Amino acid sequence: MDAVNDVDLELRLQRMGLDLVAFDVASEHHGLFSGHSVSMQDLVMFCFQMEQLTRAGVPLLEGLVDLRDSTVNPHLREVIGGIVSEVEGGKQFSQALASHPKVFSNVFVSLVRAGEQTGKLPEVFENLATTLKWQDELISQTKRLLAYPMFVMVVVLGAITFLMIYLVPQMVTFLRNMGQELPLETRILIAVSDIFVHYWWLILSLPFLAILAVNIAIRQSPLAMYRFDYVKLHLPVTGEILQKIIMARFARYFALMYQTGVPILDAIKTCQDIASNRVVADALERVWQQINAGDSMSESFHNAGLFPPLVVRMIRVGEGTGALDKSLLNISYFYDRDVKESVEKMLKMLEPALTVILGLLLAMIMFAVLGPVYDTLGKLKL
Length: 382
Description:
By secondary structure, the protein is mainly alpha-helical. It has 2 domains: 6-104, Receptor-associated Protein (Up-down Bundle), CATH 1.20.81; 133-382, Receptor-associated Protein (Up-down Bundle). Helices cover 80% and strands 0% of the residues. The protein has helices at 6-15, 40-55, 60-70, 74-88, 93-98, 106-118, 121-177, 184-198, 200-220, 222-233, 238-260, 264-275, 278-292, 297-304, 309-321, 324-381. Helix 6 runs parallel beside helix 11 (238-260). The protein starts with 5 loop residues before the first helix and ends with a helix.
């Protein structure tokens, strides 16, 4: 029998009129495609189904059992089974969700807890489904932004490597046999070609070693993580887009928690994890401290020194009108639209820019290789 733990096994046997005498855990055999992850689409569908069930008045436990039996993803079905067991054991729904932090984030649990306290679980799940769907679209845009440059970069590096390892060495012998002094650019190209031929393994491994070193430094040093996040926010082109993405995500989730009834200080604390950036998280910590000391929200966000004037202005308007959630959603809508337009513009600019870069590199290589050949042919005519 499939069960999450011994408590779940005993409860399932009791429904069948049986008693648990002894049990043993079977060995697990997981294939490559066994589905040991919960995607964003799975969470969206979970929220949509929970919203429908709770709005229709179906008891929570019965609804969870139906979801467990109808869920296709094996890992999510196992998680829901554990939640059913914990709710049957006397835990609140939000506490049961908190037992699975890899699937349900702190924001998710906080919103569900607030929905339990206010009796607005259907509205919470409806808003969560909309927000998770928006976040999934945002992630897709970011991946699309990075996919094309990475593809073109791999093609460019592949072409340069082929030229340096195969074409240039063949031309070197011919150029040296001509007996004339080679120009500076040709000597530099030959030196670079020699490096590619003799140390190609080091050149190919350098990017992976650099990524590994950065990851190790980030995990072991909070200062390195802070500096890395700071650099990401201040890169020439992508840094501005990343700032807008973070602000849009912060404003949307903050508005969602405010609508649900989560206290402002608790919402700001939760948003520190949503930011996924140490610099923004530290700024939100300063905001939290100032609000806790009695300052207004708009002054606290302004004094943090990181949030754009638009964010501060809309928060001030929300404070004055009592519609902070609407002001925050306006911020999210503005930045969301701005990110989409920026991504589209960047994709349109990247294609010709990368094509020009590739053409210039090939032209430089051809000039360094063919220049001495043309000089020799010119001397032969004379």
